[in-house]
Design brief:
CATH superfamily: Glutaredoxin
CATH topology: Glutaredoxin
CATH architecture: 3-Layer(aba) Sandwich
Largest sheet: 4 strands, mixed
Strand order of the largest sheet: 2-1-3-4
Radius of gyration: 13 Å
Structural class: alpha+beta
Number of helices: 3
Shape: globular
CATH class: Alpha Beta
Number of domains: 1
Order of helices and strands: EHEEEHH
Number of strands: 4
């Protein structure tokens, strides 16, 4: 299997329900990862362009479901399954979904 152009790492870390930081899994990240995987396949992007991978903690738990896009090295935050078509379209067009991109300030807050 050839290396893809991009990898989308979806945090699926799960903490205890009483943890004040919460966790991406408790916020629906497993459904987001599955939707991304299916959305990429539907568009034929999964063969060479992109792969949606599960990841452990990305240290952005307060930002909802978090997706790290590599090698572009930026984070999407507060991602829902409803955002997946827009993210996939952005991969096709080469444009980030700016409304979901976490700012440097947000990333520094962790």
């Amino acid at each position: 299997m050839p290396q893809r152009e991009r990898y989308l790492f979806v945090c699926t870390n799960r903490r205890s329900d009483d943890n004040p930081r919460g966790s991406c899994a408790a916020k629906g990240s497993e459904a987001v990862q599955q939707a991304l995987k299916e959305g990429l396949a539907r568009r034929g992007l999964n063969q060479l362009q992109a792969r949606a991978c599960k990841s452990s903690c990305l240290d952005q738990c307060a930002r909802g479901v978090t997706v790290l896009v590599e090698p572009d090295h930026f984070f999407y935050g507060h991602v829902t399954a409803a955002d997946v078509p827009e993210i996939a379209e952005g991969l096709v067009s080469g444009q980030r979904v700016e409304r979901l991109v976490l700012t440097a300030e947000e990333l520094a807050e962790g």
